[in-house]
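ingest -> validate -> predict -> emit
validate: passed (alphabet ok, no gaps, 143 aa)
predict: started
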Amino acid sequence: MHGLEVSLILTNKFLVAGEYRFSEQHSSTVKRLKTGNMRKADLINQIAEKTGIPKVDVLVTLEAMFKEVKDTLAQGENIYIRGFGSFITKKRAAKIGRNIKKNVAVEIPEHFIPAFKPAKEFVQEVKKLKTVKEGQPNPDEEM
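emit:
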């Protein structure tokens, strides 16, 4: 499988990823937009390049994963991926909003929103980042 070793277990909405290593031959960079952000197409290219799996298969797999996440959250269930994070639903309480065009108070009912909570390991990896890439918003700078 071109130097890729992955073990995945899917049980009761828990996805456990085992050890994985990529071979050195697949360690090239992906051309991204000038903004420095990775788009879905870039992600698909990167995964296909590192694993040797055809891009069409990677696309189908990612789309299936996105659909499963949406469907599961829409049913009110959470998804926990050990070492990565949790896709959860958060409850927003009912509140009074304001329609500023008509200057009228509007009641906003309680509702649920999707959210992602990164795992501790994920947060630790991001904290190692020393600088913000060019084109990325920097929260330390004022606008």
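The CA atoms of residues 72 and 78 lie 7 Å apart.
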